[in-house]
Design a protein that fits this description.
The protein contains 15 helices and ten strands. A hairpin with a 6-residue loop joins β9 and β10. The longest helix has 21 residues.
């Protein structure tokens, strides 16, 4: 039987193997660049055995920050023809070749957690990062709010690429003129684990629209056919605002604007409650239509500091319903698919964020149960990108950075 110490040693090796000198790739081949929220989680993993390297990970991420404050979802540090769409497709002009969209802004949360482990020596690092993180937060507050909820302009931004949340919006999009392209993801993993061509056509169409508009946020607000207020972006932005406020207070900064932002985001989170569904849900800002989806992102409410007894009852039920919670889609939904990316599989990264939130809000039993089940999953099935919630079988990429980081930072001690 493999001991937890052995698994921890393997997890460290995954991070070291995926280290490219200042940043980690999620996994070799499938994802050869620096991804935004992957990198933030990797930093927390590094902090468990090399805190300097943890700071470097986040510092490298913010080297790609645009002048307007946006921090891209991918930084293309080195050319790799094995990935599509690469920097030539995005056509962006940041300090490092990049994509033109963001990802869930969890970097501030991870930076605060790392600072808690490195209070004295880390003060200078957090002092330098704080204004950069605040500038990104301000960018989101300026460009992405609708009724106080945070919107996504591309499914890739949420990290939940092919979640059913986007189905109705994507159905209305015309991608007939997207042209020919060659996907690279299905050359690395089973196509049954990945988004369909229908979805991918629309992903590329949205990239083409952004490039045509030169990634001008005002123009995209006016013209883009995809704008969805989403639990992932709203809850992670609200959590980031709370963490930035705490960091700012510790550094002696004026946090009045953040106080106002928190209240605005709390009100926005309330607008994502779908009473007919009895869950937090995504809503299409352009049509006003609910997605009608209970996703793993719906359970990020506690991560954001938002209590909800109905969601707690749902969580308890789903933790009994599946062997390895939390599934990324309701197992009772017609759209559920146990292996296809974000349409059913369990993701260790989201489990960690949910678990952190549960612990913060005093739900210790649920937090411990989720950490234990996630730890069992990783112990039994390895450091996969994601997993079948019923069988635990590995899916997607292997030797995955953030799954290893989740083990080191959260799931491995249970």
């Amino acid at each position: 039987m493999t001991s937890s110490q052995d698994i921890s040693a393997e997890a460290k090796q995954v991070l070291i193997t995926n280290d490219r000198g200042g940043y980690t790739v999620p996994t070799a081949g499938l994802y050869p660049y620096q991804w935004n929220w992957d990198s933030a989680v990797a930093a927390l993993g590094f902090a468990q055995f090399d805190v300097d390297r943890a700071w470097v990970e986040i510092e490298t991420l913010f080297q790609g920050q645009w002048d307007d404050g946006m921090v891209p979802h991918i930084l293309f540090h080195k050319s790799d023809p094995g990935y599509f769409p690469g920097p030539d497709v995005w056509g962006c002009e940041g300090p490092i070749p990049s994509s033109g969209i963001i990802q869930p802004p969890i970097a501030a949360t991870m930076a605060r957690l790392i600072w808690a482990q490195d209070e004295e020596a880390g003060r200078a690092r957090i002092e330098t990062l704080y204004p950069k993180m605040l500038k990104w937060h301000s960018w989101i507050m300026r460009w992405r709010l609708h009724r106080g909820a945070v919107c996504t302009t591309h499914p890739w931004e949420t990290g939940r690429d092919n979640a059913p949340d986007w189905d109705n919006t994507m159905q209305r999009m015309d991608a007939s003129d997207v042209g020919e392209y060659t996907r690279r993801d299905t050359q690395h993993v089973d196509s049954a684990d990945r988004p369909t061509k229908f979805d991918y056509d629309r992903y590329i169409k949205l990239v083409q629209i952004g490039r045509r508009l030169k990634w001008d946020q005002a123009a995209m607000l006016a013209e883009s056919p995809f704008r969805v207020a989403d639990p992932t972006m709203t809850f992670t932005t609200l959590r980031a605002a709370r963490d930035l406020r705490a960091v700012g207070q510790s550094l002696g900064a004026d946090t009045a604007t953040l106080e106002a932002d928190i209240k605005r985001l709390e009100a926005g989170a309330a607008t994502l409650w779908n009473p007919a569904l009895g869950s937090y849900d995504s809503r299409d800002v352009l049509s006003g239509e609910w997605a009608g989806c209970v996703s793993n992102a719906s359970y990020l409410c506690w991560f954001a500091g938002v209590e909800n007894k109905d969601m707690l009852a749902r969580l308890r039920a789903v933790m009994e319903r599946v062997t390895y919670p939390v599934p990324s889609n309701d197992p009772e939904a017609d759209t559920f698919d146990a292996r296809r990316y974000w349409r059913g599989p369990t993701w260790a990264i989201v489990n960690m964020l949910i678990g952190m939130g549960l612990a913060d809000m005093g739900h210790e039993d649920e937090a411990k149960t989720l950490a234990k089940k996630t730890g069992d999953l990783i112990e039994e099935h390895g450091f996969a990108e994601y997993f079948d919630p019923f069988t635990g079988s590995a899916a997607g990429g292997g030797t995955f950075t953030w799954t290893a980081a989740v083990w080191l930072a959260w799931a491995g001690g249970n």
